[in-house]
Hints:
Elements: H1 6-9, H2 14-21, H3 27-39, E1 43-47, E2 59-63, H4 65-73, H5 89-105
Antiparallel strand pairs: 1-2
Helix pairs in contact: 2-3
Amino acid sequence: TAFSSFPTYYYLTVDQVRRLHYRKGSATYVSATLKTLCEHNYLARFYKHRSARYGSGPTIYLLGSRGVRYLRKQGMDLPPFHPSEHTAHKAIVYATTAGEKRLQSLR
C-alpha cells in the first residue's frame, strides 16, 4: 500500500507513490488516498516551491505523528521523529533527488 513505502523512502510525491504501487492513470486515486492519510495525521505534507512564476510545485508527503506511533506499535524500528526537521531544505532535496534515484534503481 501507499503508506508502507514511507519508512523506506521518508519523502515521496504522488507520482513516486504511484510508480511504486499503482498503474499509470491512477494519480488521482493516489492523491486522494494520501490526502485522507494526511487528514488523519498518518502522513504530513509540505509543498516544494516552484521557480516558475505560475503553478505550484509538487506536494511532498512524509510520515505524520500518528503514522509514526502506528508503525512503532507494529514493531517497526524508526529513527527519532522531529517534525520540525522535515520542512528543512535538505528534506526537499532528498525527496526530489535521492528518493528519485532510489526509485529509479528499482527498475
